[in-house]
Amino acid sequence: MDSGRRKGLSGVLSSLSLLCVILDLQLDGVLGATHVEIEQHLEMGRKLLAAGQLAEALSHYHYAVEGDSKNYLTYYTRAAVFLAMGKSKSALPDLTRAIQLKPDFLAARLQRGNIFLKQGNTQEAREDFEAVVNIENSISPSLLHLILNTFINLCALYFNRLGIKSYMHTTEISLPPTLLSFQLSPWDPEFRELRAECYIRLGDLRKAIQDLTPTTRLRNDNRAAFLKLSTLHYNLGEHQESLGHVRECLKLDQDDKECLSHYKQVKKLSKQLDSAEEHIQEERYQEAIDKYESVMRTEPNVPYYTNKARERICFCLVKNKMPAMAIDICSEAHQRDPRNINILRDRAEAFILNQDYEKAVEDYQEAREFDMENNEIREGLERAQKLLKLSRKRDYYKILGVNRSANKQEIIKAYRKLAQQWHPDNFREESEKKEAEKRFIDIASAKEVLTNPEKRQMFDSGEDPLDPESQPGGQGWPFNPFESGGNYHFKFHH
């Protein structure tokens, strides 16, 4: 009985051994396929792929990969089939394995970079594209064009993800300098156009213009380049240059719809801007304000023009002696363009008109930090500092309760009202009479300075004409209406 069992077990073990040998041989035949067999699978895969039979082709590439797991080209080829089938996620491991086996395999890096790009993995995509540039010192035209095109898509995707509609002044993504400085040929318009598009995406419109300008001569009837150049200059605020380029486009075809539409827009805006500046030159400030408000309605989407309009409206409001409105507009303009010294200067002048000298000094100081060599800013700061110092002594405008823009009639009217109110004869108590006398002297002094054009100009420049310390040699205009010789007699009409 035991002997029979041993014989049966021995038979089973023999059968298992034989099965293992057979399986081993079969696995050997697959995993250890010969070079010829692998090539046959690859050839069949190529034929089926060309015939559009992707699933059948893929099975042959599976055999090829299993037969030679060290061949980077086999992984790359199977990845290509996956991509043809729209299975980019399945292609990614094969491309990664191909790169691991051959780190300088540029085609695999480009394909993987494109997959990362489609998946929204911008950092990984950028690393692959930069690796291509760093590996390949001598880049072929076709490869460079592919990289640049891909980078344009990368930029667009990146900005779309951030919700950014404009590429202006955005440098979150950058290409290696070796790529954008690479020059194929000065007569290659396609390369210049691609590189210009990259510069536009990076917000470097000046370099884009440099690349696009020669293409207007390198291609016949290149209306697209003239239109793009016109648009770039327009976005930079160079409306005259923009007009020049769009006119060149219309010379090639006066009925070109895009160029004609853009020409009408630029022409209208340019006319408004020129007219506004003419009004300023003629000191017709309200008309200039109206024109700049029209500019903002004509072009609300390009920051240069809206910022410029607010800057100039701010200037005009100061010239029109409207400090409260000027401060509001200047502040809005400053928020949009914080390093603009003209806005800071004009707001400082508005603060001076509003008798807020501390803020005027602050604005002039900030402007001075941006431009230490500007004499107008330096002189304005010195004047604001003098006015601040004077305000802590006697401010004749505040004494009379009038604005710095008040005319002579307004000053005399304010003086008469206060002089009648504070005349010492109106008070009986000695202490009240002394206080009234002091007030009355200040009121009379304010009237003396502000109704005299020379003295008022001195005071507006930060000098007190009645303060001996502020005069050369200590000689000022000491003034007291109660001193002998003052000849101040008042007759008030009710």
Automatic annotation (TrEMBL):
InterPro entries for this protein: DnaJ_C3_Co-chaperones, DnaJ_domain, J_dom_sf, TPR-like_helical_dom_sf, TPR_rpt
Top-level taxon: Eukaryota
Record region (Disordered): 452-480
Pfam families per the UniProt record, alphabetical: DnaJ (PF00226), TPR_16 (PF13432)
SUPFAM superfamilies: Chaperone J-domain, TPR-like
Coiled-coil regions, chain positions: none
Protein name as it appears in the record: DnaJ (Hsp40) homolog, subfamily C, member 3b
Residues in TPR repeats: 72-105, 341-374
Cellular component per GO, a single term: endoplasmic reticulum
Domain spans labelled J: 395-463
Signal sequence residues: 1-32
GO molecular function annotation: misfolded protein binding; protein-folding chaperone binding
The organism of origin for this protein: Hucho hucho (huchen)
Signal recorded as keyword: yes
UniProtKB keywords: Endoplasmic reticulum, Signal, TPR repeat
Gene3D superfamilies on file: DnaJ domain, Tetratricopeptide repeat domain
